[in-house]
Amino acid sequence: KEIDAHELINGVVNTFRLKVEKNNGTLEAELNAQDPVIFVDEMHFTNVVFNLLDNAVKYKSPDRDIALKIRTWNENGKLCISVEDNGLGIKKENLKKIFDKFYRVHTGNLHDVKGFGLGLAYVKKIIADHKGSIRAESELNVGTKFIITIPLFKEE
Ligand code: ATP
Ligand code: MG
């Protein structure tokens, strides 16, 4: 279905903002893309955005309040969406494994957070099914940024 990506993102952001602000955190949306219409499965794509924000909250740093940013822009006729946090960050050697099924970073008792290690494998599969791609950039103890690139919908 043709979906306005900004409407979809705003829907997810609104449900998350409450959760983040309850914990003294902030969630900023800078949705600057033009005509952000994409041809996606609405339910799955909502889950993708939800998963990224869910991780950003789950893997917060114990040292500071959560600050999240979600942005959109256009690049080479495609839509880019980034989700950026100021959380625990991920070591370079682990970064390449985070999209693998069942992979979770071992952090001892640093964060006693439960999960199956499936969220990002799901995200990657859904994005790939929509001819898009996703990559992650991270710095340990600074934060993590996920960037999705997905084709815009074009009427034929
Ligand atoms: P699930 O999503 O299935 O509940 P999960 O969150 O452990 O479990 P993924 O979402 O696939 O699984 O993430 C894999 C691992 O990557 C996580 O266990 C965590 O170690 C790391 N990770 C993911 N997102 C972030 C993030 N924003 N900041 C720091 N680490 C992250
Ligand atoms: Mg997860």
Notes on the protein architecture:
- It is built from 4 helices and 7 strands; from the N terminus they run βαββαββααββ.
- The protein has 156 residues and is α+β, with helices and mostly antiparallel strands.
- Strand 6 (133-139) and strand 7 (143-151) form a beta hairpin.
- Adenosine-5'-triphosphate (ATP) binds at residues 55-56, 58-59, 85, 87-88, 90, 98, 103-105, 115-121, 144.
Bound molecules: adenosine-5'-triphosphate, magnesium ion
Shape: globular
Taking the alpha carbons of the first and last residues, their distance comes to 14 Å
Total helical elements: 4
Residues in helix, %: 25-40%
Sheet-strand content, in percent, reads: 25-35%
Biggest sheet features = 5 strands, mixed
Order of helices and strands: EHEEHEEHHEE
Give the neighbour order of strands across the main sheet. 2-4-5-7-6
User: How many DSSP E strands?
Assistant: 7
| Integer-rounded radius of gyration | 15 Å
Low-confidence stretches: none
Structural class: alpha+beta
Give the rounded overall mean pLDDT: 94
Quick structural overview:
The protein has helices at 5-22, 42-58, 92-95, 119-129, and strands spanning 2-4, 26-31, 37-39, 67-75, 78-84, 133-139, 143-151. It has 156 residues and is of the alpha+beta class.
